[in-house]
Structures are given as structure tokens and as C-alpha cells.
């Protein structure tokens, strides 16, 4: 595959393209040229990242088309790990190959990771309390971020919604995510949405439902006709033979009419079955686009990668459980490796889980955790870089090197997702053309977009932090933060304000509020 054209052409992909040393140099340069700045400018978290990827790789560079983008979005959301980071890695893997994809991952994740490492070093050297101006700045960042994510959720929903079913699944996914929260819950929701889409697109329930409706309708019609006959008979002028002939005619016509109608109903059923078959064929054309298979690796190699990961996961967990005297850094690595393996739903889900695996172990204080939580919303790149911050603080508090702790946190949180998604891409090349797979991903995609609204709500509920409530409280408790959130949303939707500018604007408004409050002596 040459690099002269930006147009994606899967028919030219061969495995040898990814190991051709003559092309490694140009591909690495292309990866660097197109990705070097994204780790510095991609603010707003996963929902905004997905929009950025669509604008760049689908609309501008044409590295993939809309169909492949939606497939990758569904895959990256349906499996564990950092959703936007996996999406970025897979797009570069499909276009440029493995070495450039690894380079793109480094360019994407390292700027934010280094920033969180520096923040951890700074936090480890401050006192127990922070100035109120800092809390105000962090609250402003949170409020602006909520507006950015809400806008991204709306825009992604507009792309995911293709009919009434997907519209309903987006709503139900958001509603279910708001009502309950557990580690197993999000993957179950997305799996259920995929099953619903398959049942709907294959029309497995259409036949039984139509049969019941028709049978009930026929009985009602026959009952109505009989009642009409009785009324007609009562209105006849009394007369022996005439009345008898009317009764006979009424019974005969009613019986014949009923038989004709039953016969006509059977013919109608045959026509309905033909219509259903035609609609199924049309649905198949709609659900399964006529695209070529993606070939990154064989399905056997993909399966081998996934099996190897499972073996590594079992080994790490067994060592963690059977040897209680493991060093602190190994326990840190194993906890984050477990988190990176079981997190479904991306960045919005990783935050509460890391609280359980780090703060509950008394490795990092609740205050330091919440400071990092507020600042990660204003950092570019993946939210999973929060693990670098926590790993660094854990190592420093335990008397180890902060650099080593940050590196272990980075490796443990990202490795499971990238490892499994790389193997999944090998399997995907073999099954992506199957009709039920395409149909199920349509439902998974809709539910995943709905869960983004859940992230908006959860950040909204803890966005305002101050001295008296450093654990966070709802932004709705102060109209100022509501205005900041609305301004961030309106600025992006109506005036094209970029997420970094909106974050800076939110931070400034937070400081403005602090100045006003201090001036009034509150």
C-alpha cells in the first residue's frame, strides 16, 4: 500500500505490507506527522476523542470509511480497556501497520502521562490543604469539561442513531447507566443491546407477533359481522317464509363469507410472508455493507494473542493472591493490571474503580486522589493516564522511586486493552462480514453512546470541590457552574470553540468566581 494517496483501499492490504522494511521509514514518518500533536491538543476525554478521530481519520484523511469507523467504535467500547486509546491504535494499525501504530500510541499517550507524573511530584510536596483559588480553578475545569462531553455525546448520538431501534437503545443505555453502577453492569448492557438488535434485524419476533395479531383480528371481525347480521334480522318485517329465508341467507352468507374471509386471510398470510422475505433482504443489504475484509493478521494469530493474554492475567492474579508478602510495587502493578482488564466503558468508569484499588489500600490519600481527578479532566490524551499519577504517588509514599511507580502504572493500565484489541482485530478480519455480527454491533454502538450520557451525569455530580467538601458535590448547587457548563456546550456547538479553549475559559471563570466570593467576604 503506497502512501501517495490518503484514500483507504482495503483491497491492497497484505500481511507483507506490515513487515516490509523498505516501507517502515515512510510509514513511521507518516505516523509521526499525523499524530505528533494529538497528545497535546485532545482535551475532553473519550467522548470528545472519538469525535476528533472521526473528523481527522474519516472526514479529512480518509484512512477509514464511516462503516469501519462505527465497527471500530463498537469493538473498542464493547471490550475492556481505554476506549479512545484503542480506537486510535487500531486506526493507525489498519492504515500503517504495527510499528507505526506503537509510535502513534506513544505520541498519543505520553504527553498527558508526563504531565500527570509531574503533577504527582508536585502534589507529594505540598501540605494537607490547598488554597481556595486552586479549588475554584479545578471546579471551573470540571464544569467546562462536562459541557464538552455533553456536546460530544449529542454529536455521537446523531451518528449512532439510524432508526427508531437505535434511538431507543441510546435512551435505554443512558437511563440504565444512570440508575445503577457496577463492574459487570456496562458490558451486560452492551451485550443485551447487541442481542436486541440481532433479534430485531433478523425479525425473529415479527412472525409470531403478526400471527397472533391476525388471529385476534379475525376473531374480532367475525364477531362484528355476526352482530351486524343479528341487527339486520331484528329489523326484518315479521313473516314466516321471508324471515326464515333471511335467517337461512344470513347464516349461509355469514358462513360463506367467513369461509371466504378465512381463505382470503390465508392468501394474505402468504403475501405477508413474501413481504417479510423482501424486507429481510432489504434489511440485510442495509445491515451488511458491501465492503472488503480487513486483513491485519490471521484469525489464528489473533486467537493466540488473546489466549496468551489470558495466561498472563491468570499468572499475575495467582501470584497476587497466593503470595501475601509481595512488594508494594508488585501489588500496585497487579491491581492496575486487573483494573485495565475488567474496566468496560473507558475513562468515565476507570476513576471510581481506581479509587477502590488505590485509595482503599491506603496508598494515596482521598484528597490527593480528588485533586488528580479534577486535573485529569483538563489534561489532554487518555484519562487512563490517571494511573500514572496514582502509581507515582504510591511509589513515593512507599519510599520507592516515583519514576518506577509511574512507569508501572502506565504499563499495567494500558497493556491489557491494547493486547486484547490487537488480537481481536485478527479475529475481526474473519467475522466482520457475518450478518449477525454487523447487526449486533449496531446495537452495541447505540448502547455505548448512551453510556456517555452516564459519564456526563457522574462528572456533574462531583464537579464542584472546595475546602469544606473536597470529595466533590454537584455543579447544580451553584448557578455559576451551571452557566460555565452551558457556556462550554454552546461555545462548541454554535461557535466552534475548541475543547482546549473551553477548558481554559472554564478555569478562568472559576478564578473569577473565587475573586467575587472573596471580595464579598463569603
UniProtKB/TrEMBL annotation:
Q: Which InterPro entries match?
A: Chromate_transpt
- Please provide, alphabetically and separated by semicolons, the GO molecular function terms listed in this UniProt record: chromate transmembrane transporter activity
Q: Where in the cell is it found?
A: Cell membrane
Q: According to the UniProt entry, which residue ranges have a biased composition of type Basic and acidic residues? A: 224-235, 243-263, 276-285
- Give the membrane topology, semicolon-separated if more than one: Multi-pass membrane protein
Signal sequence: where?
none
What segment(s) does the record annotate as region Disordered?
224-285
Q: Which residues form a coiled coil?
A: none
Kindly state which keywords UniProt assigns to this record, in alphabetical order.
Cell membrane, Membrane, Transmembrane, Transmembrane helix
Q: Per the UniProt record, which residue ranges are transmembrane?
A: 96-121, 133-156, 168-186, 192-213, 303-323, 335-357, 369-391, 403-431, 443-460
Any single Gene Ontology cellular-component annotation: plasma membrane
Report the sequence similarity comment from the record. Belongs to the chromate ion transporter (CHR) (TC 2.A.51) family.
The name on file for this protein is Chromate transporter-domain-containing protein
Amino acid at each position: 500500500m503506497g502512501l501517495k494517496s490518503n484514500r483507504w483501499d482495503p483491497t491492497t492490504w497484505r500481511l507483507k505490507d506490515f513487515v516490509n522494511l523498505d516501507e517502515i521509514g515512510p510509514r513511521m514518518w507518516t505516523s509521526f506527522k499525523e499524530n505528533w500533536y494529538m497528545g497535546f491538543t485532545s482535551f475532553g476525554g473519550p467522548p470528545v476523542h472519538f469525535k476528533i478521530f472521526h473528523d481527522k481519520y474519516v472526514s479529512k484523511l480518509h484512512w477509514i470509511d464511516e462503516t469501519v469507523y462505527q465497527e471500530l467504535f463498537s469493538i473498542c467500547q464493547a471490550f475492556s480497556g481505554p476506549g479512545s486509546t484503542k480506537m486510535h491504535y487500531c486506526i493507525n494499525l489498519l492504515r500503517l501497520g504495527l510499528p507505526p501504530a506503537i509510535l502513534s500510541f506513544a505520541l498519543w499517550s505520553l504527553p498527558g502521562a508526563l504531565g500527570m507524573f509531574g503533577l504527582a511530584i508536585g502534589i507529594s510536596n505540598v501540605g494537607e490543604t490547598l488554597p481556595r483559588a486552586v479549588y475554584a480553578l479545578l471546579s471551573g475545569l470540571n464544569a467546562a469539561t462536562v459541557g464538552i462531553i455533553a456536546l460530544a455525546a449529542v454529536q455521537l448520538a446523531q451518528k449512532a442513531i439510524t432508526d427508531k431501534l437505535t434511538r431507543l437503545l441510546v435512551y435505554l443505555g443512558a437511563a440504565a447507566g444512570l440508575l445503577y453502577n457496577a463492574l459487570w453492569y456496562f458490558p451486560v448492557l452492551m451485550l443485551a443491546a447487541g442481542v436486541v438488535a440481532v433479534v430485531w434485524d433478523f425479525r425473529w419476533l415479527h412472525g409470531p407477533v403478526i400471527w397472533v395479531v391476525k388471529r385476534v383480528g379475525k376473531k374480532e371481525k367475525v364477531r362484528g359481522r355476526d352482530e351486524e347480521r343479528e341487527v339486520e334480522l331484528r329489523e326484518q318485517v315479521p313473516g314466516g317464509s321471508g324471515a326464515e329465508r333471511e335467517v337461512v341467507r344470513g347464516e349461509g352468507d355469514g358462513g360463506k363469507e367467513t369461509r371466504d374471509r378465512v381463505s382470503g386471510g390465508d392468501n394474505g398470510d402468504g403475501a405477508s410472508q413474501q413481504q417479510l422475505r423482501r424486507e429481510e433482504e432489504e434489511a440485510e443489504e442495509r445491515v451488511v455493507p458491501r465492503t472488503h475484509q480487513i486483513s491485519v493478521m490471521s484469525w489464528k494469530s489473533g486467537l493466540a494473542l488473546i489466549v496468551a493474554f489470558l495466561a498472563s492475567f491468570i499468572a499475575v492474579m495467582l501470584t497476587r493472591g497466593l503470595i501475601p508478602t509481595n512488594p508494594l510495587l508488585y501489588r500496585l502493578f497487579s491491581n492496575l493490571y486487573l483494573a485495565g482488564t475488567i474496566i468496560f466503558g473507558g475513562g468515565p468508569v476507570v476513576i471510581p474503580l481506581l479509587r477502590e484499588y488505590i485509595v482503599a489500600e491506603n496508598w494515596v490519600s482521598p484528597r490527593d486522589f480528588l485533586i488528580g481527578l479534577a486535573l485529569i479532566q483538563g489534561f489532554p490524551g487518555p484519562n487512563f493516564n490517571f494511573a500514572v499519577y496514582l502509581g507515582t504517588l504510591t511509589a513515593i509514599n512507599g519510599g520507592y522511586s516515583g519514576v518506577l511507580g509511574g512507569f508501572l502504572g502506565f504499563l499495567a493500565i494500558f497493556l491489557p486493552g491494547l493486547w486484547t484489541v490487537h488480537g481481536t482485530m485478527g479475529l475481526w478480519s474473519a467475522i466482520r462480514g457475518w450478518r449477525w455480527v454487523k447487526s449486533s454491533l449496531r446495537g452495541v454502538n447505540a448502547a455505548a453512546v448512551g453510556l456517555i450520557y452516564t459519564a456526563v451525569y457522574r462528572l456533574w455530580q462531583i464537579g464542584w470541590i472546595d475546602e469544606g467538601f473536597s470529595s466533590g458535590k454537584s455543579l447544580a448547587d451553584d448557578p455559576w457552574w451551571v452557566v460555565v457548563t452551558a457556556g462550554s456546550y454552546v461555545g462548541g456547538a454554535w461557535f466552534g470553540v475548541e475543547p482546549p479553549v473551553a477548558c481554559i475559559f472554564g478555569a478562568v471563570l472559576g478564578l473569577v468566581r473565587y475573586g467575587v466570593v472573596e471580595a464579598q467576604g463569603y
